[in-house]
Write a structure and sequence with these properties.
Blueprint (H helix, E strand, L loop, with lengths): L1 E6 L8 H6 L3 E8 L3 H17 L2 E6 L6 H18 L4 E5 L5 H14 L2 E5 L6 E3 L13 H17 L3 E3 H7 L4 H13 L3 E6 L2 E9 L1 H8 L3
Parallel strand pairs: 1-2, 1-4, 2-3, 4-5
Antiparallel strand pairs: 5-6, 7-9, 8-9
Helix pairs in contact: 3-4, 3-8, 5-7
Length: about 220
């Protein structure tokens, strides 16, 4: 049995062929936007599922252009679906939707090892996306992960992704030099960014980037 997840833009043709392609299709979970055309396409897919006797579950995303938020939303849904259908194959059709919506789905497939497919526009053939499961967090040591989570917590406490480096040093029992070493590694990986402001160039700041949020999302 197969559970099909799919991203949807303005045309139902980005999804419909995969309904017939999936083996023993049990359920379709459709990620779509609040756009009127997207909702129209959603209803056509609902009709297609009803004709095939397949369960249909639409999911309206909050913002189809916010990549990190999209990955988080999809991850939460995927976790629920994986528990409910733990013995079924899960496949993600990433053909439709905005570039950010499809990109979020692709990132999630890489992070979770899910089979991804797309429908080739020229001839309608359904192809599997060649993916290798990769985790952002695999390149970090336990201490580096702990530091990243600590920074995330400080950012949350301060209500901003940009915080003073001095706040990070205050929260840790280790020496400033050790924390600085970890932060240099995190910055090299593109997870954080250090900078100074023009009005006070002696005080260093740190920006917690979206890639870091995805890195921490993997372990949820």
């Amino acid at each position: 049995m197969t559970v099909l997840l799919a991203t949807l833009g303005f045309t139902h043709q980005a999804v419909m062929p995969s309904l017939r392609w999936a083996k023993n299709l049990k359920k379709v979970v459709l990620f779509h936007s609040k756009n009127a055309k997207s909702k129209e396409a959603k209803e056509k897919i609902r009709e297609g599922c009803e004709a095939l006797g397949v369960q249909f579950e639409p999911y309206e995303v909050k913002d189809e252009y916010a990549l990190t938020s999209l990955v988080k939303e999809m991850n939460e849904e995927l976790s629920r679906i994986s528990k409910e259908y733990r013995n079924e194959e899960i496949v993600f059709n990433i053909t439709g939707g905005t570039k950010m919506l499809a990109s979020a789905a692709l990132i999630l497939c890489i992070m979770k090892g899910i089979k991804a497919i797309y429908i080739r526009e020229t001839d309608g053939e359904i192809l599997e996306v060649p993916l290798i499961r990769m985790k952002y967090s695999d390149v970090l040591t336990p201490s580096e992960k702990k530091t990243l989570r600590s920074i995330a917590g400080i950012c949350e406490e301060n209500g901003s992704d940009e915080i003073k480096m001095s706040l990070i040093y205050e929260k840790h029992m280790r020496s400033d030099s050790v924390i600085s070493t970890y932060i240099k590694k995190l910055e090299k990986l593109g997870l954080v960014e250090t900078f100074v402001k023009e009005n006070n160039r002696r005080e260093k700041w740190l920006k917690f980037k979206d890639s870091a949020k995805l890195c921490l999302l993997e372990d949820e």
